[in-house]
Amino acid sequence: MSAPATSPAGDLTTDPVDPRPFIEGTQTDQTINDTLLHHVFRGAGKGWWACFAVALAMLGCLVVALTVTLVKGIGAWGNNIPVGWAFDIINFVWWIGIGHAGTLISAILLLFQQKWRTSINRFAEAMTLFAVMCALLFPLIHTGRPWFAAYWLLPYPSVQGIWPQFKSPLVWDVFAVSTYFTISLLFWFLGLIPDLAALRDSATSKVKRTIYGMLAMGWRGSGRHWAEYKWAYLLLAGLSTPLVLSVHTIVSFDFATSVMPGWHTTIFPPYFVAGAIFSGFAMVMTWMIPARQFLGLKHVVTMRHLENMNKVMLATGMMVSYGYIMEHFIAWYSGNQYEFAQFFEVRQKGPLAPIYWLMIFCNVVTPQIFWFKRMRTSLAVMWVASILINVGMWCERFVIVVISLHRDFLPASWGSYAPTWVDICLFTGTIGLFSTLFLLFLKFVPAVAVTEVKELRHETEHDAHIEASLTAGVTGGSH
Amino acid sequence: MSAGADHGHGSDFVPRRFVLAQFGTSDALLEGTRRIREKGHKKIDTHSPYPIHGLEEALGLGRPKIPAIVLMGAIAGVCAAYSMMYYMNVVDFPINVANRPGHSMPAFIPITFELAVLLGGSSSFFGLLIGLLGFPEPYHPLFELDSFKKAAIDGFFLSIEVPQGGNQDGVIADARQVGALNVEAVEESER
């Protein structure tokens, strides 16, 4: 603790819990500015173009599948009674869950003053936006005629004089998801404004200066502006925090308010929210590990950040596992034979049981490796684990939606389900849409919140100076 | 650059004049701001790449206005949502499902909450940028100075608007006195 005035940018900080710094190496505002904006100004490399080509090819699948869906109708999909919801709702819930990690990192960790959020929030917020776009696509097209959807979903004074039924969770969903997208976009852009100003003033070409200048809207780092800005940002974070919890709660109400065995469960809201954060962190990890390598962000996205994210995945994975246990316990404890059959017969031994067991493996077993520090700090292990978790979370939604529906109360109404090529193309296509948007984001916008990293560096330096001057018993000190 | 009244040729345009003072560190900027305010300069502002702790006190700012704007937005959202649902499902077109009441408070809570967040959050964004900051503001006289580019990157600046008919050289001298490393003056250009 009383080490001589360690430079804040030195190797270790004086934090007694974990002395590793959040920003590695000797940095100044200028070096942070240069290193974090570098990837925006340099030309796109071969690697970027290769990834972009793959993403565009997958996006092509989306165009084909959407065209088929709109021309032929949703009969082109594999779902039919009794499995009336399938890939559309699975993918909707999966994507929107992925988005939730962005809001958790940017808003909840901000309110909890977790400094490690600073290096990853921009990245995760962008992921939120793109994931919610992919998610929104599915409920829209599953109406069959999306050009009429506005009449059905929104309170629009149509000539029929009929209004939405506000006691239906499906209508709550419309408001929840559209609010979530709007607020995430505003929050993301508000955080981006000072960085856009930095881009404007670092740009060397007139075109870039003009474009970033227009987007920065005239930001000049004014103290009077900062005073209000900080509050506006904090208030948006404060509003986003209950919002993100409400969104997945309402998504879970789509299921929980029905009487379907396997859906009619009070644990759904917290269990959905935990699962959402679990899968969202996994998706951040899947992208962050290659991105920090290729964009040169290792000094701000350190092993300590990755390790923290792994710990969050372990914690949320345990919450999800607890949700599974409680579902099974209540199915047994309630004495309801349909619930019992759903959880102990259909899921575990039925025709689609392999997906259930894959879910258990990916979501319950996989995160347990993060108890070990060696695993938490191995890039290869965490990258593979993050992909497995995303697979597992997709399987979870498959289990909830399809496995519940294909075996309900009456054996005479049992059925089976298999996706068509259109279903698979649509799903692949949204991965393509997400990847395309994300690669464009990585090309044109700083992937790390430059301003916030500078502020963090400044605060760390300031604290170190105060500590140094206290231990040395002298006042003042120059930077 | 003359300090006298130079009002152009018949036009109403009176250019605003600014003095921009650069400081080496954030602490020097805070100290300089405090001292320049003590010298009686009113229209002062600081420019830094990130918010600096203690800036509000140094600039002598009051309480932020944004929380009240957001609160009003959120309350408007609550009222709009609840009255919308009440009108549509109770007054205008009640749908009787198994004789359940048309007015059902628990079922109206989620959308009430969502619209409160939507309007509260939007008023935070638009209230800040358009209402309080007056954005988009593509031109500001300070942008004419090349050195001002550092304000978004790593520079700490104090800007003082010279009052109409005021003595610019006096302001420059004051800025030097409070510890500025580099002082420049700029005049608004007519557009």
Walk me through what this model shows.
The complex is a heterodimer of chains A (479) and B (191). With 479 residues, chain A is mostly helical. Chain A has one domain: Formate dehydrogenase/DMSO reductase domain (Formate dehydrogenase/DMSO reductase fold, Up-down Bundle). Helices cover 70% and strands 0% of the residues of chain A. The longest helix of chain A is centred in the middle third of the chain and has 34 residues, at 169-202. Chain B has 191 residues and is an alpha+beta fold. Chain B has a domain at 66-132. Helices cover 43% and strands 13% of the residues of chain B. Chain B has helices at 26-38, 55-59, 66-92, 105-132, 168-177; strands spanning 17-23, 44-47, 156-162, 182-187. Chain B has a 4-stranded antiparallel sheet with strand order 2-3-1-4, with helices on one face. Chains A and B meet through α1, α6, α8 and α16 of A and α1, β2, α2, α3 and α4 of B.
